[in-house]
Amino acid sequence: MSRAIRFAPFVLLGLLLLALAWRLATPKDDVIRSRLAGQPVPEFVLPAAVPAKPPLASADLAAGEPRLLNIFASWCLPCIAEAPVLDELKRRGVKIDGIAIRDRPRDIAAFLARHGDPFERIGADYDSRVQLALGSAGVPESFVVDGKGVIRHQHVGVIDRGDIPAILAELEKAR
Amino acid sequence: MIAETGLAALWLAAALSLLQILLALGDGRRWFDAARAVRGVAVVHGFLCLLAFVALLLLFARTDLSVQLVAANSHSAKPMIYKLSGTWGNHEGSMLLWVAVLGLSGTVLALFSRRLGERAMTAALGAQGALALGFHAFLLLASNPFARLDPAPIEGRGLNPLLQDPGLAFHPPTLYLGYVGLSVAFSLAVGALLIGQVDRAMAKAMRPWVLLAWLFLTLGITAGSYWAYYELGWGGWWFWDPVENASLMPWLAATALLHSINVLAARGGLRAWTMMLAMVAFSMSMVGTFLVRSGILTSVHAFAVDPQRGTFILVLLAIYVGAAFLLFAMRTAALKEGPPFELVSRESGLVANNLLLSVILGIVFIGTLYPLFAEAVSGEKLSVGPPYFNSVAGPVALLLASLIAIGPLLSWRRETRPFGRKLVIPLLFAITALVVLLFAAPEVGWLPKLGIAVAAGLAPASLIPLLGRNPLRAPLATWGMAIAHFGVAVAIVGMAAESGFTRETLAAARPGDRVEVGPWLVEFREVYPAVGPNWTAIEAEFRASRGSGAVTLKPQTRYFTDPQTETNEAAIKTVLAGQLYTVIGPPDGEGRWQLRLWWKPLVTLIWFGGGLIALGGLLALLGRTLRGWRPRFRNSRERYA
């Protein structure tokens, strides 16, 4: 056996240990960010989620003014916690559109009646296709979209009261 | 007091393991008998380790809440069996169990292994002492199981309810017995390389340990798979999850070692390779422990994770495996080559087995660690899932399974007899199965089809080594091999049938509704609350029938209070042809419940095959250890005849 082969296991082990040590030393980052930040919203046309609200298409997000795009569902418990915060944002003049994920019109209407309705338009994404295209990791999730339809910021998870200033600042930046 | 006794025993054991190393290093001096001293120390060391573990067991049995570990992992309301299994259902306790088994295996090695020369034994026990010292340091410095809690809490914080299951109570200790058995093989290999004696005697001394380790790993993996199947309620039996892979990798290495060591024991060949495998097998069990305990890979298994502990295990891994590999690099040049063998021979069959097993090991290893390397190099986050493992490792495994049919029929060194004729019947079986499947079930994927065909050929082929002589006279080890290989065929049929013929129905149903799944008609009768010792549950009642007669199934969603957790208890009806697997999901608020129903034909064969493989290992182990005694009986009989 040649010398090189005999030392190969030792060298391979060294490489493995280096990689593992690097992983231990780097703190884990569980947040998954969309690669679409800085990119235009992927094109989509969604049907209306409830008869009383206009439907949502990607063109509606490029209407000249920054908007908040909120991904939610009536079956999502954290979304209930998020609802009053979205109402608060609406009171402060933020334009909010919603995408309801894998949901039924009746359930969405009940959700809006019960927990408040901050949305201007709501699209129904029955099979999560638009959600996946947006690179969203779960529900709820929100995107700040500027007036030209470009995604400026992604907020994974619930927007709580503490996040309001940051969201407002992002919307201001997108102006 | 019990806790302090345990702690004292642990410190003493640590001191003795250091002594074991020093004595082994002093071997060869004329003025003292290192061999005897080292054996004695190893025996006492083992008993001290056991004492420490028994102390912890007692503390859990009494639910002594003034001990931090008990308070954090137990609860006075828990059934006794789960109080006891709570001892090793946590990090500190499981490491103590590991050390206890390691110490005891040193005791057994010192007391009973007579095949090995004194020098080899001393060196191996020295290496074993070095292993033990590292884990003692880990326990005493970084994870003391006996730490007190002052003031003691009124009630403990429970045990993960998923772990309150008889299957799981014994799953980790079984795997640990496997890991530790591999540590003895590692110590023997290191000792043999240190004194430069890699020979057949060493291989014969190592073989029972490898068999033992492999037997427990097989049992542990089989039981763990069945546990995940019925407890997680996902309907799958293997998820290629990092923690599962962590137990599979040592098994693959041990399987390769088990076969290559036969070449070394019988023919004196494959010396360097076998030593390398012995080291790799134990390294894999340490890498596995590291992956599980450090939490650097995302897994469905939620263990209490602590990066500091991960660092400690990583340092131990670097020291032990680094030193062993360095030793290997420096010493293998001096190893003599074994006797030559021809292309068609038992040896080359076993070499092919080793190559294929190594390839599978490499595939699993790369797949498990790839997300880590990808992120290190490109910052990209990704995960590797079943599509990779199944489609890459599956064909190699089938190739290996076909080789199993041929290998045992070859003779050592050179095959002179024509053996092709023996394979005619198995080949006919395989082809018939394939043709039947092609016509009867064209929609099934090619991997399950080929799997069933290969298994149909392997099943009869695996029994051929028992024929041609009186089967009752065949050595136990041959029986073991035949049964284990037959078990592989059985397990493959189960896996292939599960992946090819499973029928799944997801439905939202009201009580009174009927749902079809495969040949079954399942009536959803009612839902009602149920109560257990430390949980409440929603229980559903199903009546399932296939034509005549009906069976009742009662799946539950359980809510545990302490800590608050929700689990799905699947209700499973096993019939000869397979299993009906039912799960009750959450309600939708309008009187409907989410039902998940599976019909899984022949799925039980997976674990039945696993059991057969383990049984084969047991027979081989008995055969190998008993054969050592047989000549003695014969001698004594001759003497008195």
CATH H-level homologous superfamily name of chain A: Glutaredoxin
Question: Helix-strand pattern of chain B, N to C?
Answer: HHHHHHHHHHHHHHHHEEEEEEEEEEH
Average pLDDT rating of chain B: 85
Q: Helices and strands of chain A: which structural class?
A: alpha/beta
The low-pLDDT segments of chain B are 629-641
Work out the number of β strands of chain B. Answer: 10
How much of the polypeptide of chain B forms β-strand, as a percent range? Answer: 5-15%
* Helix content percent band of chain A: 25-40%
Provide the domain count of chain A. Answer: 1
Sketch the topology of chain A as an H/E string, one letter per element.
HEEEHEHEHEEH
Report on the structure:
- The complex is a heterodimer of chains A (175) and B (641).
- With 175 residues, chain A is of the alpha/beta class.
- Chain A has one domain: Glutaredoxin (3-Layer(aba) Sandwich).
- Chain A has five helices and seven strands, in the order H-E-E-E-H-E-H-E-H-E-E-H.
- In chain A, 35% of the residues are buried.
- The longest helix of chain B is centred in the C-terminal third of the chain and has 37 residues, at 604-640.
- Among the domains of chain B are: 1-164, no CATH class; 418-501 and 605-640, no CATH class; 506-601, no CATH class.
- By secondary structure, chain B is an alpha+beta fold.
- Chain B has helices at residues 2-25, 34-61, 68-73, 80-85, 91-112, 118-142, 166-195, 200-231, 242-267, 271-294, 307-331, 346-378, 386-406, 424-440, 446-463, 476-501, 604-640; strands at 503-509, 514-517, 520-531, 535-546, 548-553, 556-560, 565-569, 571-575, 578-587, 593-601.
- The chains are: A alpha/beta (175), B alpha+beta (641).
SSE layout:
The complex is a heterodimer of chains A (175) and B (641).
Chain A: H1 3-25, E1 45-46, E2 56-57, E3 67-72, H2 77-91, E4 96-101, H3 105-115, E5 119-125, H4 129-133, E6 141-145, E7 151-156, H5 164-173
Parallel strand pairs in A: 3-4, 4-5
Antiparallel strand pairs in A: 1-2, 3-6, 6-7
Chain B: H1 2-25, H2 34-61, H3 68-73, H4 80-85, H5 91-112, H6 118-142, H7 166-195, H8 200-231, H9 242-267, H10 271-294, H11 307-331, H12 346-378, H13 386-406, H14 424-440, H15 446-463, H16 476-501, E1 503-509, E2 514-517, E3 520-531, E4 535-546, E5 548-553, E6 556-560, E7 565-569, E8 571-575, E9 578-587, E10 593-601, H17 604-640
Antiparallel strand pairs in B: 1-10, 2-3, 3-4, 4-5, 4-6, 6-7, 8-9, 9-10
Helix pairs in contact in B: 1-2, 1-6, 2-5, 2-6, 5-6, 5-7, 6-7, 6-11, 7-8, 7-10, 8-9, 8-17, 9-10, 9-12, 10-11, 12-13, 13-15, 14-15, 15-16, 16-17
